[in-house]
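Let us work through a complete example step by step.
Step 1: write down the sequence.
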Amino acid sequence: MNKLRVDVWSDIACPWCYIGKRRLERALAAFSNGNDVEVTWRAFELDPDAPKLRDPSVTQAQRIAEKYGMPVDVAEERLRDMTQTAKEDGLDFRFDAIRGGNTFDGHRLIHFATERGLGGAMKERILRAYMTEGQAVSDHDVLVTLATEVGLDGKDVRAMLTSDACADAVRADEREAQALGIRGVPFFVVDGRYGVSGAQPAEKLLEVLNKAWSELPEGEVAEGAVCGPDGCA
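Step 2: predict the structure and record it as tokens.
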């Protein structure tokens, strides 16, 4: 039986990526062939040079204001708007509690979990820990705890984190993203042919799923040009 592959490039320190995940889930729930879709979570670091843990005395609004050159009150308003958007998608964002830091090890853990059939659960748990619970998902102790909650062996996870395991897989994802011209996340690639940039509404994602399924050939999935937000090349 044919399987429809959906590759999702996203970061775990990315509010729109969490919203995009929820919208994809709604699209899959409405998709008549949802049981025949294989979702693969691909790594993308929005800030690969981020320190292990950012200065907790700097608020998220202050950090955004500095990054984009805007007044802090404007940044605070944007965060309030995003919190409301997240709420409409069933998510509870706590920007006041976020503990930012480097996400590379978190991406390695998701790859490790994927090899054991728990990639989606691990992705969800890390996103919730970061966006809602104020946990430092760059901290190995935190990652081990989160991993055991989804069913992974804590000792195996700690051994992985203290090695360079899965690092090549993360770098491979990032190289592929660069080759595809992906500059922002989330970015969905359906059947290797259709691309959707950003946290689009579930209805838009469902439309792409239906189109890709209707064109799914027997046997191997066809490779081709990836579409961007303005159409297909």
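Step 3: interpret the result. Residues 218-233 have pLDDT under 50 and may be disordered.
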